[in-house]
Amino acid sequence: MSATVRIPTVLRSTMGGVTSVVVDGATIGAVLHQLTTNFPAARGQLLNDDGTLHRFLNVYVNDDDVRYLGGVDAPVESDDEITLLPAVAGGAA
Amino acid sequence: MARYASVLDLIGDTPVVDVSALSPRPNVTILAKLEGRNPAGSVKDRIALALVDAAERDGLLIAGKPDQVLLEPSSGNTGIALAMVCRLRGYHLKVVLPSNVSPERRQLLDVWGAEVIDSPGAEGSNGAVRLAQRLSEENPDWVFLYQYANPANPLAHYETTGPEILRDVPEITHFVAGLGTSGTLMGAGRYLKEQRPQVKVWAVEPPSGEMVDGLRNLDDGYIPPIFLDNHGAELLDRRVVVRPRESVEWTRRLTDVGLFVGISSGAIMAGAVKCATTIPEDETATIVAMASDDGWKYLSTGAWSDDLDVVVERAKQIIYF
Questions:
Q1: C-beta separation of B160 from B46 below 8 A
Q2: How far is A70 from A67, CA to CA, in rounded Å?
Q3: Residue predicted with more confidence, B316 or B262
Q4: DSSP assignment, residue B294?
Q5: Between residues 103 and 142 of chain B, which touch chain A (CB distance below 8 Å)?
Q6: Residue A91 belongs to a domain
Q7: Using an 8 Å Cβ cutoff, are B75 and B101 in contact?
């Protein structure tokens, strides 16, 4: 499975400045693992030491938060778009 | 009853209206709860009154005492609602406002006599929160209500929004609302789940993290304390991002059913429609979607009349949610 991962501004400095990257992986965990292999400097920004998602990182598959779809076990299909977004203060306030 | 002693008595008890003409499934009813009917124009009237009442009860504010200053970070609606309440109660309000909110939001703060302190637009609401926290530390005599952490925020929705929904829509199966401070979702969502455990709670948010330039790294991120205090991750059943284009498209489509609402309401409606598509065809469902405010504050964006591509680019430059 190859999915496109959209990289937010805050992570670009550790990921070669790219805005998106195509990554292989059948689950979100596999995709993130591949990202940390390609961009070792980003590891601490994506995953905790125990392999769970960084507290301030939200990951969406086709704009659906993966924490409600199985977390790192959430399946990834070909042509899915994965978006990484930092947790920030919401706008509706 | 149509006679009230104070405009503050007009807060809450908002109507719900059937907008199922926009439902993608004939077996799914969608109802919009019209928070723009609140006197200062948004769902935030509920928490503004609750925050000030709680501060008075706790002795942080003393009714009638002169020269009391309140401070609050807001991308608009909370500031506007607080400004109205403070005008009535005689408090001076300082609102830390990102510089890139729609001009009407700023004008409404002027209407109610609030003082605006600008925070960098590129840092979004995050920047406003950070600046307000710093100002609060530097000025300990200012009362910092801090809607993102104040339990009176979700409590207002637990005590009013949630019970109103259940009273008016006892058959509710899904509740869809915007995720900002998370107050609406934590308060009304928790109430609805307590009363009807089968109710699913969906959160809709804009892709704001994509646009915030003020973060040096991910560790500068922010989760509202009331989201953590209320175990928000467990309370929600689904959390979806709705992008500016879809938000504007659904804001326009809502005029087909007679609703002139703000762009965040379009985003929430888009979320409700997505929710409806997950319902199997042999089941029925009733979705209640919040319509957080009316469209007046967004006329300058051209959301209803200008070329969609142009409006979407404009929407990316302002905080509309």
A1: yes
A2: 6
A3: B262
A4: B
A5: 124-126, 128-129
A6: no
A7: yes
Q: Which residues of chain B neighbour A60 with C-beta distances below 8 Å? A: 240-241
pLDDT tens, position by position, B12-42:
999 999 999 999 999 999 999 999 999 999 9
Searching chain A, which residue's CA lies closest to the CA of residue B75?
A93
CATH topology of domain B7-37+157-308: Rossmann fold (3.40.50)
B209 and A87: CB-CB below 8 Å?
Answer: yes
Looking at the domain that runs over B44-144, which CATH code has it been given? 3.40.50.1100
> For residue B129, which residues of chain A lie inside 8 Å, CB to CB?
89
Residue-level pLDDT at A91: 57
Per-residue confidence (pLDDT) for residue A93, from 0 to 100: 56
Distance CA B259, CA B13 (A): 18
**What is the full DSSP assignment across B40-63?**
TSBTHHHHHHHHHHHHHHTTSS-T
Scanning B262-291 for CB atoms below 8 A from A yields 264
pLDDT lower than 70: segments of chain A: 91-93
CB A73 within 8 A of CB A28: yes
Domain count, chain A: 1
Which contiguous run of DSSP H or E holds residue B125? helix B124-138
- In three-state secondary structure terms, A74 is coil
Do B7-37+157-308 and B44-144 fold alike per CATH?
Answer: yes
The CA distance from A72 to A32, in Å, is 8
Whether residue B247 lies within 8 A of chain A, CB to CB, comes out as no
Distance between CA atoms of residues A90 and B177, nearest Å? 13
| Residue A39 touches chain B, beta carbons under 8 Å | no
- For residue A33, the enclosing domain spans 2-86
Dihedral over Cα of B71, B184, B227, B210: its sign: negative
Residue A41: which CATH number? 3.10.20.30
Residue A52 lies in a domain: yes
Which tens digits make up the pLDDT trace of B205-220? 999 888 777 788 888 8
Look up tokens 């928070």; give the residue.
B35
Environment class of A1 (CB within 10 Å of its CB; exposed 0-12, middle 13-18, buried 19+): middle
- What letter represents residue B11's amino acid? I
Tell me the domain boundaries of chain B. 7-37+157-308, 44-144
- Confirm or reject contact between A5 and chain B (CB < 8 A): no
Task: Evaluate if residue B182 carries a pLDDT over 80.
Answer: yes
Share of chain A above pLDDT 90, in %: 78
